User: What shape does this take?
Amino acid sequence: MSLLTVQHLHKAFGGNQAVNDVSFNLQAGELLALIGPNGAGKSTTFNLLNGQLTPDSGSITLDGVSLLGRQPHELWHMGVSRTFQIAQTFATLTVAENVQMALLSADGQSFSPWRRATHYRRDAVLQLLAQVQLDAQANRACSALAYGDVKRLELAMALANQPRLLLMDEPTAGMAPDERHALMALTRSLVNQRGVAVLFTEHSMDVVFAHADRVLVMARGALIAQGTPTQVQSDPHVQAVYFGMGHAEVTP
Ligand code: ADP
Ligand code: MG
Assistant: This one.
């Protein structure tokens, strides 16, 4: 059985079908990319999965358990972690303290931003930071980090939850090409080590084809292709959407 099963997902904003009958599966240990041009419905699909939006119809199950109607914090406790297109960290805290906040939350402890948690699970913190190659920067203020490092910190925070499913919305947005590949290679190694399932949305194709096991392609709300990078790359609908070779027939 798949870890994540999405069936016939629909979401409209007014008359605009942002997500139109989208179905797919995701296995543990799989790195699945969701690509498509701007406005294709990637972020909306992502937000339906992470509980920010509720679908008009369709089903989403994790290990057979429905995720519908659950708030993001509830999903987090079920083992669904996410990172954001705009990195979300506490700028005034250190790198280590940010991970401690995530660990406190994962452990079901309430935390107060004004009561610092400097000593909380220090070994676990350093282990997580080592996994994203940030251990040398543990005591720096988050606000002093380079953008690529903030994205890696965010990944460490997402992993604090020991997720079964990790959702990443445009993890490489705003990064230089080298950094993009480094972050995806890191994600790839974490997927292999931990057996976590990852779904990531991505704007550019080169990152996807280099690192994803499988690719979903959306255009105008519909899933127009899915398969291995090689299969998707040679799909005429995908070529039409990306390279403007005629008009893709985007039918639900
Ligand atoms: P992508 O992430 O692929 O660029 P989105 O999922 O953000 O695409 O958007 C898909 C479509 O839904 C677009 O036409 C967009 O304008 C529309 N849309 C997205 N979010 C909202 C919203 N909160 N309210 C109204 N329309 C939205
Ligand atoms: Mg988007």
